[in-house]
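Retro notes, structure queue

What went well: the backlog is down to a handful. What didn't: a couple of records were mislabeled last round, so from now on we paste the full input next to the output in the thread. Example, using Cadherin-11 from Anabarilius grahami:
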Amino acid sequence: MWEGLRLQVFFLCLGAALWSAAAAKMYRGSGPRERGHRRHLSLHRHWERGKEGQVLHRSKRGWVWNQFFVIEEYTGPDPVLVGRLHSDVDSGDGNIKYILSGEGAGTIFVIDDKTGNIHATKTLDREEQAQYTLTAQAVDRDTNKPLEPPSEFIVKVQDINDNPPEFLHGPYYARVAEMSNVGTSVIKVTATDADDPTYGNSARLVYSILQGQPYFSVEPQTGIIRTALPNMDREARQEYDVVIQAKDMGGHMGGLSGTTQVKITLTDVNDNPPKFAQGVYAMAVSEDKVPGEEVGRLKARDPDLAENGLVDYRILEGDGMNLFEITKDSETQEAVVKLKKPVDFETKRSYTLKVEASNPHVDPRFIAWGPYKDTTIVKISVEDADEPPTFMAPGYNFEVEENAPAGTLVGRVHAKDTDIMNNPIRYMIPRYTDLEEFFTINHEDGIIKTTRPLDREAQSWHNISVSATEIGGHHQDAKVRVNIKVKDVNDNAPEFAAQNEVLVCENVSPGKLIETVSATDKDEMAHRQHFHFSLAPEVANNHSFSLKDNRDSTASIFVIRKGFSRMTQDVYHLPIEINDNGVPPMSSTNTLIIRVCSCDSKDTILSCNVEPFILPAGLSTGALIAILACIVILLAIVVLFVALRRQKKEPLIVFEEEDIRENIITYDDEGGGEEDTEAFDIATLQNPDGANGFLPRKDIKPELQYPMRPGLRPIGNSVDVDDFIKTRISDADNDPTAPPYDSIQIYGYEGRGSIAGSLSSLESVTTDSDLDYDYLQSWGPRFKKLADLYGTKDSADDNS
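Corresponding output:
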């Protein structure tokens, strides 16, 4: 590489020398006009007259340039001489100083201030910066006073081939259709070179193919890759790895190069027909298969992809075209042979089909390569199966007369075994189809008979099933539907169609039609058959009603007398005979009920009941309703009064659901004094020994009686009052029936054996008492108030 670089530098220097010589020659041969632009410019000024006679002052500069270019990537031991500055005012005595400023001045470019020589002290790279703009000026060395105005000049970096070509967008991926013509464009690759394209051949690139021949080629100047071989088959090879090289210097020796990879994929076209792997396919189907079931599969393979590889199937010919059909499995692209109609081993044991496979999408460019189809033969053999018996008819319809005796023949069903074995058949009627067992069947010959007389009016049709089972083998069975119609026999007499009463007014006129009766018969009516009506013989000569047969299965009833009286007779029974004229004829006598009613002058019925005749005169229905209403109101008042009286007599006891907190209960009855023994049990107060130690609450009504708690003992005769009160307080606090709030406790015991006697004021009717209350002082602090009251009084009396 360094040898090539030195060679480039040599040629570059040679070129620069030749260019300098040519420039000098051009200078020597140039006329007065060209010498105005020479490199040696005087600094002296001269006068030049303008177009309008104006005098312009112009300064002449006398710079001398030895070089305008500097080679990049120079690696020599000495700095590169770029050029030399020289002014006309420089007499060589050293009084002039040259100054350099601008891009890279002092760092990259340095100037000898005495001689004006400019050197490059660093290696330059054109790809980083192609040129530098500098400013030069000559000044007095002692005073630094400019001797002339500054002047700009450009130093260009001369390019060398130091950058190889690069493919900035590689690697590349391309697609081209298989079977493409030679020269078909695949993709264009492009390389870039950082060298100067305007100088030399450093950036002139040439493309070539290093890998991928002989399938592809590349155009040297454009980088376009094209197919180089015809009929490239994707099914043979789908992907190709191609390596492309780009070389500068026009591809000559010494040029730099770069490579890239191109992966080319051949896309599919429909260039292959479908092919069956076999010329003949063998399949088998059992005769017991039902239509729609699969018989077998076959597949024609097409190596093409996607829609180019789709295959359609059809049956072209064969003796099984009506019994078999072919469909396609869209997922596996297989042909599915299915049963279209049932087959019978005993009838035909093999079938042949010719099946065709074809491409639905054919590329017109390759249609000459066809045909894009293939055919094969499918042979289907029918396998024998143990089939159930077959009835000679799909269903049977029989008739039997009603009321026929048991054992009457209904009909016969027949089935046979179609297998080669031809096993005997056993017949039976499944009980779930004939729950009441109206019929029986002979197990060997299939003859059906009745088991008892049948009634058409109860059930006109009997739908049963008969099963036929092989005797031996796999006991296959088959069933058939048998519909038995019960034929009608005229065994039911006719009767009225409706059992309604006929209402007639008391003042009805003779000859008036009061009713039209009709009849019905449970038996079937024959064509043109109708009912005949007549009065029963016992009323044929009655003087109240007559009957007329209308000969259309109806009859009209007329009144033949004038007026009726409900008081005399309110209901008439008219027996009528009805004959159906059947074979044999059946008749019946039906009674028509005729009720006499009271009517107004317009024959509007007012009442047909007899009760109004037994009511008192002048008492209407409205009056009866009013009387009943009054009775109901009186009963309600009595019930309300009784309920109020009961509510007042209820005892004033506070129930458990009532809230008795701070309630004031008023009792309106007064006590009868100490002699009133009805208000309380005086024996309990006089005999505390009889108490059980548990005093119930007086302000509530307890639901349960609680036993005496352990630790409570009966009160003795010499109980202390203070202990007694504490005991009662404890009982009240621990009573589970007591509510958790304050209540008034009544203590009716004053203490047994007390010398004070009763504390009640009821017995103290006089103010002069001889009792001594000094003992209250010894009862403790609870009785201190009483002791102070009574003791103080006594003391006061003594002092007086």
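Agreed that this is the format going forward. Reviewer comment attached to the example: The two ends are 159 Å apart (CA to CA).
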